[in-house]
Design brief:
This protein is α/β, with parallel strands linked by helices. A 6-stranded mixed beta sheet has the order 18-17-14-19-20-21, sandwiched between helices. Strand 9 and strand 10 form a beta hairpin. Helix 10 packs across helix 11.
Length: about 450
């Protein structure tokens, strides 16, 4: 039974058998062909026996394969997967590799073909892009080995039933962290912020470099360092005020269910929160997370202790929601009772109409009295593509007019929030992380936190 389960016929065999069937039908009309077809069938049967003997004469260790996948996958990113193949056959071995990837990907085309010479090893590389957090179960790695005749196939199974968790986008977080460490954030859209005033702590006196603010020149230190005709300008260096609490408030309600490029708005907010928390910790601030929907779900107090980033990552990974109606009254009460120190609150949510904002505006204004509130919500990218497309008929003119109304309401929401001193970001989902980090650095440079 084990042998039969591992035995498969190639397409070539079925085509040859179809040819024999047609040949036997033709032999009824031409009897002289009948013995020739019989001999050919016998030869074909002998070839099948030889092919099967070559494939199955050795034990299960005649071929080896291994799937190399990261211990955890990054949500919304391309994650590398490597398949290692090693043939121990004594003849050239064509193979078909079928990887049973998790059902969440809804793909049935992960099939690769390769040819291995005797005792050769090969690597097959491909990428997977998950769009949901959670546990993903890989099935077996199936390898169908053939002889040079390619009549029969022998199936080998490896690495069955492996579970890999999908976390928020830690690859994106590492990318931003690396660019921040090498001062190359502008490569991904992070702007250089001009500092206004000196709401910062004095750090040291250092030599002047082009681009330094001339207002920071220390004339006494310059006079001490100058000798004769050589003048070495010295400037005061400042560092950002540290240990400011930064909270990401993540709305898990109905409005965050909309999809964009496979990810929900909620997952975009979670990915951006992870990156921003890491940047805040690098800037010596304290980072915290609060999630809410119809009630406040989880609160991680803002800290800067070792392991805080790992706590944030685990908390964001385990977020589950039924996308119910959001309760901002409960959120406001929780913020008032648990976040006592003035903090930067980044509220990730979405407002489609001015009426939706007006229902929640009293609660937003109440939070803005005690904290610096930054409301982050999303542009409708499908709506923008409709507005950019020229109208061809009356129906399209009507649809474009309605679209302009919704687009105008989004801009009005921004102005209305700014009237009450509430900072805002209106962004496309794909630009969320860069725009959020930009705003955080801007607020920090302006000394608002």
């Amino acid at each position: 039974m084990t042998l039969l389960r591992a035995l498969y016929f190639s397409v070539r065999v079925w085509l040859i058998l179809l040819g024999f069937a047609l040949a036997f039908v033709l032999a009824y009309a031409f009897p002289l062909l009948f013995p020739i077809v019989q001999v050919a069938l016998a030869v074909f049967g002998l070839l099948l026996l030889i092919d099967g003997w070559l494939l199955f004469r050795s034990g299960p260790n005649v071929f080896f394969a291994r799937r190399e996948v990261p211990e955890r996958l990054s949500n919304g990113d391309e994650n590398p997967v490597t398949i290692f193949l090693e043939s121990r056959y004594r003849f050239q071995t064509p193979v078909e590799v079928i990887d049973e990837i998790p059902v969440q990907f809804q793909r049935r085309d992960v099939l690769f073909q390769a040819t291995l010479t005797p005792h050769e090893s090969q690597l097959i590389r491909y990428q997977l892009r998950p769009t949901r957090r959670g546990e993903y179960q890989f099935g077996a790695l199936n390898v169908l080995a053939m002889t040079p005749l390619q009549l029969l196939k022998r199936r080998f199974r490896f690495d069955a039933d492996r579970i890999v968790p999908v976390y928020p986008s830690f690859l994106q977080m590492r990318q931003y962290e690396l660019l921040a460490a090498t001062n190359r954030l502008n490569e991904i859209g992070i702007k250089r912020i001009r500092r206004i005033g000196h709401s910062m702590e004095f750090e040291q006196v250092r030599p002047y470099t082009p681009g330094d603010d001339v207002r920071t020149i220390n004339y006494k230190a310059t006079a001490r360092r100058s000798s004769g005709s050589d003048t070495a300008l010295m400037v005061n260096a400042y560092q950002d005020e540290r240990s400011q609490p930064v909270y990401c408030l993540i709305d898990k309600g109905r409005v965050m269910r909309s999809p964009f490029e496979g990810l929900t708005l909620l997952d975009y907010a979670i990915n951006a929160s992870l990156v921003l928390s890491n940047i805040a910790l690098l800037k010596q601030d304290r980072a915290g997370i609060l999630t809410f929907s119809n009630e406040v779900n989880q609160l991680l107090p803002a800290e800067r202790k070792p392991g805080q980033l790992q706590k944030i990552l685990e908390l964001l990974y385990r977020q589950r929601t039924q996308f119910l109606e959001t309760d901002y009254e409960s959120l406001t009460a929780t913020v008032r009772t648990t976040i006592r120190q003035r903090s930067l609150l980044l509220l990730f949510t979405n407002f489609d109409t001015a009426n939706a904002l007006n229902r929640q505006l009293p609660f937003l204004r109440r939070m803005a009295k005690d904290h610096l509130l930054l409301v982050v919500f999303f542009e409708n990218t499908e709506l923008q593509s409709l507005l950019d497309k020229p109208a061809q008929n009356t129906e399209e003119v009507y649809m474009k007019t309605i679209g302009e109304k919704f687009s105008f309401e989004k801009r009005q929401i921004v102005k209305q929030l700014q009237q009450y001193g509430i900072q805002t970001i209106l962004t496309a989902p794909q630009n969320l992380t860069a725009n959020t980090v930009n705003k955080y650095l801007e607020l920090k440079a302006r000394g608002m936190i």
